[in-house]
Amino acid sequence: MTSASPVTEQVTEPVGEHVTVDPAILYFGTPVVLLSSLNEDGSTNLMPMSSVFWLGRSAVLGIGARSQTARNLRRHQELVMNLASPAVVHHVDRLALTTGRADVSPWKACAGYVYAPDKFAVAGLTPLGSATVSPQRVAECQVHLEAVVREIHPLGAQPGDDPDAARQLAVEAEVTRVWVDPAVRLAGHADRIDPDRWRPLILSFQRFYGLGPEVHPSRLATIDEDHYRVPRAPVRA
Predict the structure, then answer these.
(1) Alpha carbon distance 122, 63 (integer Å)
(2) In b/e form, how buried is each residue of 110-140, taking b as 16+ CB within 10 angstroms?
(3) Which residues, at least 6 apart from 61, have a Cβ–Cβ distance to it below 8 Å?
(4) CA distance 35 to 51
(5) Which residues pair with 177 in a beta bridge?
């Protein structure tokens, strides 16, 4: 019986002048969202966040497991993603060092966070009623995505770990209603967004940026948007 030959790892010379680094955070640039969730007293909490992406009608959001938003979503699984634009950056920034939890954690207290039970008042924003969920929308944002939570996954947990000990959560949510400012609709289409009119606020390594003009035509854009549409069950009014 012969033993298998050991696998020899091939080492290639690095191309270019890249170097290895170990950043504390990996926020290379993602859209800013004001996330609405329902507090125990029926009021709406707002959390500014930027760990979010969409696939079809589903959104995946990354949130701190000990945040007021996490507490709310575990209890009442409805939310609104209010997408921010550069026009509301000053409102967003007022919420940056606030928390909806009265028991401010030592880490947050050391970083300068303070308890703010009324986030709308702190940010100078206007609440709007929602159609399919209980948390309120933010009038000043041009895009509102109402949604319901489908799954909450602990991040970084190993087999056998207590899921309640996770520091971050990945929240899977299904969008139930989309609201947009008519100013960002694509002319001649009832259900499309004009990417030249909609400009999301972007967070890159803790700093705010906006989008510039389109840099290059996209071959992906030759596919008609309706090609992606899939049948879905009606939502409650």
Answers:
(1) 21
(2) eeebeebbebbeebebebbebeebbbbbbeb
(3) 33, 35, 49, 51, 52, 81, 170, 171, 173
(4) 11
(5) 146
Q: Which helix (H) or strand (E) holds 92?
A: helix 89-94
Length in residues, the chain: 237
42: amino acid identity, one letter: G
Q: CB–CB of 177/131 below 8 Å?
A: yes
Q: How far apart are CA 188 and CA 75, in angstroms?
A: 42
Q: Give pLDDT tens digits along the chain (237 positions).
A: 555 555 556 666 667 889 999 988 888 999 999 999 999 999 999 999 999 999 999 999 999 999 999 999 999 999 999 999 999 999 999 999 999 999 999 989 988 899 999 999 999 999 999 999 999 999 999 999 999 999 999 987 777 777 667 889 999 999 999 999 999 999 999 999 999 999 999 999 889 999 987 677 777 678 787 777 777 666 565
Q: Which amino acid is at 31?
A: P
Question: pTM, whole model, 2 decimals?
Answer: 0.86
